[in-house]
Amino acid sequence: MAQIVLGIASSHSPQLSTPAELWKLHAERDRQNKDLWFRGRSYNFEQLLEERQGDHFERQLDEETWNRRYEECERGVAALGQTLQEANPDLLVIIGDDQRELFLDDGMPTLAVYWGEQAESNPVPLEELPPSIRPAAWARGERHEWLPCVPELGRHIVERMMEEGFDVAQLTRQPAGRSLGHAFMFVRTRLMKDRIIPMVPVMINTYFPPNQPTAGRCYAFGQALRRAVESWDGGHTSTRVGVVASGGLSHFVIDEDLDGRILDGLKRKDPGALDLPQNLLTSGTSETRNWIALAGAAEHLEPDVLGYVPTYRSAAGTGCGMAFARWS
Q1: For the chain, N or C: smaller number of CB within 10 Å?
Q2: Using only C-alpha atoms, what is the Rg of the chain?
Q3: Contact predicate 287/97, CB 8 Å
Q4: Which pLDDT value is given to residue 28?
């Protein structure tokens, strides 16, 4: 039987892979964003700036602070990469969200499993990306490549999920010209590095209303995912599986209180603390659902939060709550 021996969770924001001196480009993008979500309410940049002016985020925007936090993030990513290398799993189940990369512009399944023989990385030409995203494009794969998958396990997961009561979408081929999303390519580029590990991409619709799963549903999905993996023999008796959650925590507006609540719930292995209301899981913060699913899949392992870095990039408190954790 297969066994989940490792869990890894990492933020994947483009800011994480952008040199600190260019974080100002992300702040410029925030100023044009008319839908900045914070604690269940949408703001434009000026409204948010007025709402949060008493927090004095401008004190966290100096070069020294940005460089220090960039280095803290680099250490977090490096530690997870080292953890993955040392654990040396036979394959990975990667839980991420698709942001109109693989799926077409209309039609986003709540839950989906890709079980093709290979997954294709089809990078968007640099000139077609927003200026703030270009410096981080390397982290989502700069060249076309085919990544090995595990179709036998992928199909088995689909079949078991149907028995478990989760009506997952499934696909074995990518639409022409579409790419495996950046949630997955970040794992391949920044965590796997030179050793490409066969994968099963599992997608949760975290971003796009109205069919986003609840936090509780995500935790239960993770529990069912573990049962599916453990019931698969794969032709071997000791297949070692790692599960990775890609994305989060709070962004594009940082909420340190919410992030602290999430990380504390993970450390205490408390599903109730992770059962967050839907109106808090909006915009980029919605990717917390991927972490919650991993917590369900890895509840037999011991969690270890390696770091949390609030990377503020504007006086309005925009940025990303970067977090790095492992279960072993």
Answers
A1: N
A2: 19
A3: yes
A4: 96
pLDDT digits (tens, 9 = 90+) for 111-138: 999 999 999 998 888 898 999 999 999 9
> How many Cα atoms are found within 13 Å in the side-chain-facing hemisphere of 237?
0
What CA dihedral angle connects 192, 195, 199 and 205, to 10 degrees?
A: 20
40-63 confidence digits (pLDDT tens): 999 999 999 999 999 999 999 999
The residue assigned the tokens 């189940």 is: 93
| Average pLDDT of the chain to the nearest whole number | 95
Say if residues 145 and 35 touch (Cβ distance below 8 Å): no
Q: Which of 170, 159, 161, 266 is nearest to 215 (CA)?
A: 266
- Provide the pLDDT confidence category of residue 237 given band limits of 50, 70 and 90: low
Residue 55, both tokens: 């927090």
Which residue segments constitute the domains of the chain, with CATH numbers given? 3-327 (3.40.830.10)
Q: DSSP letter string over 206-218?
A: -SSTT-PPPHHHH
Q: Is the pLDDT of residue 235 over 60?
A: no
Instruction: Write out the E strands in the chain.
Output: 3-10, 36-38, 41-43, 91-96, 111-114, 118-121, 145-148, 169-171, 199-204, 240-246, 251-253, 303-312, 318-327
CA separation for the pair 45, 301 (Å, rounded): 41
Other CB atoms within 10 A of residue 166 CB: 20
Q: What tokens were used for 149?
A: 């998958």
For residue 264, pLDDT beyond 90: yes
In the structure encoding, which two tokens stand for residue 211, read together? 């069919």
The residue that leads in pLDDT, 103 or 227, is: 227
**SS3 for 52?**
coil
Longest dimension (CA), the chain: 60
In this structure, the strands spanning 118-121 and 111-114 are unpaired
The tokens describing 30, both together, are 């925030």
* pLDDT, tens digit, 9 for 90 and up, residues 267-292: 999 999 999 999 999 999 999 999 99
Decide if 295 contacts 222 (C-beta within 8 A): yes
